[in-house]
Amino acid sequence: MIVTTTPTLETKKITEYLGIVTGETIIGANFIKDFFAGIRDIVGGRSSSYESVLREAKDSALKEMTERAQELGAHGIVAVDLDYETVGPNGGMLMVTASGTAVKF
């Protein structure tokens, strides 16, 4: 399935719009990762533990969105948008939402 942030595809003609599909993921960042990320922030550099959590959450949200599009019989998803937000007490959870328009070619 083609998944793109663009509203159209040059090589495909959209024949039917099936509606908006979404995928949501909420992942908790654990205390040990927070501790080491804090140290990394003090000494500089990138926090690979947080980057890993971000990738995992993004991949999960995109997978869920794609599964919903497949249930509709879509061939692709266009105009995909990813949103990231912290939620929960003290922002201890990361929420990633993927949304786009399911289409047929």
From TrEMBL:
InterPro entries linked to this entry: UPF0145_dom_sf, UPF0145_YbjQ-like
Residues of the signal peptide: none
Gene3D superfamilies to which the protein is assigned, alphabetical: Hypothetical protein apc22750. Chain B
Pfam families per record: YbjQ_1
Similarity comment: family membership: Belongs to the UPF0145 family.
Protein's name according to its UniProt entry: UPF0145 protein J2Z56_000569
Annotated organism of origin: Formosa algae
